[in-house]
Specification:
Blueprint (H helix, E strand, L loop, with lengths): L1 H27 L7 E2 L2 H9 L3 E7 L4 E6 L2 E9 L6 H7 L11 E5 L5 H14 L1
Parallel strand pairs: 1-4, 2-5
Antiparallel strand pairs: 2-3, 3-4
Length: 128
């Protein structure tokens, strides 16, 4: 009788483990919309050639999102260096921004709570 009880309990634990693994891979597995990552030099070359429709960036963030012409569902990402901005790079490499061939560049402001978080981390570094 004791062996039968152990078998039932292990079966229940096995089902719980399988459900937990399924949830884990659901949330942390492959993203639903996979993004392609390309180098910033390729993004600049494509922008000069008029292949890019839109670029989205956030102030203070090094990651940018790029949408190519004719491919509105595919998101391509790239990274900037810490002190670079997409607008300064486009100006340095003569990427047209005012014509129909140039990309629409949207730079969103940095999150409002960012200053408080950075001040808190600086304070914690000095105290701890």
């Amino acid at each position: 009788m004791g062996d039968n009880r152990w078998l039932k309990n292990s079966f229940v634990y096995l089902i719980i483990l399988v459900a937990a693994l399924a949830l884990f891979f659901q949330y942390f597995g492959n993203p639903a919309n996979p993004t392609d990552e390309r180098g910033i030099a390729q993004i600049i070359a494509d922008a000069r050639a008029g292949r890019i429709e839109e670029i989205r960036a956030k102030a203070g963030d090094e990651r940018i999102e790029v949408v190519y012409r004719g491919e509105p569902d595919q998101m391509v990402t790239s990274r900037l260096e810490t002190n670079d901005s997409i607008m300064s790079l486009f100006a340095a490499y003569d990427v047209p921004l005012t014509t129909d061939e140039g990309p629409d560049v949207t730079v969103e402001p940095a999150p409002a709570g960012g200053a408080c978080v950075s001040a808190f981390t600086i304070c914690c570094r000095h105290c701890c």
